[in-house]
Design goal:
Layout: E1 4-7, H1 13-25, E2 30-32, E3 39-43, H2 47-57, E4 66-68, H3 72-78, E5 79-80, H4 84-93, E6 98-104, E7 118-122, H5 127-136, E8 140-141, H6 156-163, E9 169-172, E10 183-186, E11 193-196, H7 202-208, E12 213-214, E13 243-248, H8 251-259, E14 264-268, E15 279-282, H9 289-303, E16 310-314, H10 322-332, E17 337-339
Parallel strand pairs: 1-9, 2-9, 4-7, 6-10, 11-12, 13-16, 13-17, 14-15, 14-16
Antiparallel strand pairs: 2-3, 3-8, 4-8, 5-6, 6-7, 10-11
Helix pairs in contact: 1-5, 9-10
The structure holds threonylcarbamoyladenylate (TXA) and magnesium ion (MG).
Length: 340
């Protein structure tokens, strides 16, 4: 299959949006930018289209997808019995990097969340995907546009590296401003539950949902055979092929540890770099969590090119958006954490 390039930066914006919408209306699949990561979109009403998404990504069929909407009317078409608190959250966090798990409406294709009575819904901030949703008149199911298990794509080049020839089209847009996927909160549990941390932080959520609980799977390895609230949490994810470790400790201890390893790569903070004698990939300043979020997946994508024996990633603080970065990194490291 030839993957069509729809250029919205230097090409004709309106034509590209319309073409993407037409492909989606006829059950094709299109990679689209969002403010978090690039998504691989399909009509949320079409099992046939969604099947193509799972195939292109090589995604386990039991891992449900997020449905993207462009206005509040669309929300009522994809979710039932919406609690009042969902509207409060929507007012505060939409459009933006925030996803709510709600009761699924019968209109949504079964394969969006196979075997579940719930659906995850998000209204993105990025204008181009909202224009495509409007133009198609369809809510779009869209997981991240990467091969399952690989780091999420934050540029269209990442998307093409993974999926060129496997999808109908890719919208060539800006690099993703946030860089980690949306915050996922379930409103279908006894108490609201944070299933995946993102750029809407736990601190911000507590202002609206004071009784929110944090799912254990966010920072710890799921126990064997145990049911996981967010199925995406149970998979090894975002991982380079190089053996990956997450390292906790101050700059001095980190440098001493990594310098003692042979043929290592350090995915590190700008502040660490002067003290390191190994190959480095800087993912931002320790004091700028937004930069760490924006760059983390690009750094992980570069690791394998350095042909090292192992990669040691300097762990960020677990506060603010740092919690989201830590959550992705502990999965990239398959829960191998070294505390110095
Ligand atoms: O920022 C994002 O959310 C990006 C962009 C493209 O919007 N999308 C994204 O999708 O990250 P994906 O498929 O890579 O991650 C979806 C996450 C998974 O962890 C999945 O298990 C969880 O959301 N999820 C989806 N539907 C769910 C449901 N009904 N109940 C619980 N968790 C759900
Ligand atoms: Mg993903």
């Amino acid at each position: 299959m030839t993957t069509e390039r729809l250029d919205i930066l230097s090409g004709d914006y309106q034509n590209s949006i319309k073409r993407a919408a037409d492909i989606l209306k006829s059950d094709g699949i299109v990679a689209v930018p969002t403010e978090t990561v690039y998504g691989l979109a399909a009509s949320a009403f079409s099992d046939a289209a969604i099947l193509k998404v799972f195939e292109a990504k090589g995604r386990p069929q039991d891992n449900p997808l997020i449905v993207h909407i462009s206005d509040m009317d669309m929300l009522k078409g994809v979710a039932d019995d919406i609690p009042d608190i969902a509207f409060v959250c929507a007012k505060k966090f939409w459009p933006g990097p925030f996803t709510m798990v709600l009761k699924k409406s019968g209109a949504v294709a079964d394969s969006v969340s196979p075997g579940l009575e719930t659906v995850a819904v998000r209204m993105p901030l990025e204008k181009s995907i909202r224009d495509i949703i409007d133009c198609a008149g369809l809510p779009l199911a869209a997981p991240s546009a990467n091969i399952s298990g690989c780091p999420s794509p934050t540029t269209y080049t990442h998307v093409l590296n993974d999926l060129d020839g496997k999808i109908d089209a890719v919208v060539l847009g800006n690099d993703c401003k946030i860089g980690v996927e949306s915050t996922v909160v379930s409103l279908c549990t006894d108490k609201p539950r944070l299933l995946r941390p993102g750029a809407v932080t736990l601190e911000q959520l507590k202002a609206v949902l004071p009784d929110i609980e944090v799912d254990k799977a966010i920072l710890s390895e799921p126990e064997n055979g145990k049911k996981v609230a967010s199925p995406g949490m149970k998979y090894k994810h975002y991982a380079p092929k190089t053996d990956t470790f997450l390292v906790e400790g101050n700059s001095e201890k980190y440098a001493e540890f990594v310098n003692g390893r042979e043929n290592a790569v350090a995915v590190c903070f700008a502040e660490d770099k002067p003290f390191l004698k190994v190959k480095t990939l800087v993912y931002g300043s320790a004091n700028d969590q937004s930069a760490l979020a924006k760059n983390v997946f690009s750094a992980l994508r570069q690791v394998d090119q350095l042909k090292a024996t192992a990669v040691y990633i300097h762990a960020p603080e677990k506060t603010g958006v740092g919690l989201a970065v830590y959550n992705r990194l502990i999965r990239a490291a398959a829960f191998k954490v070294i505390s110095l």
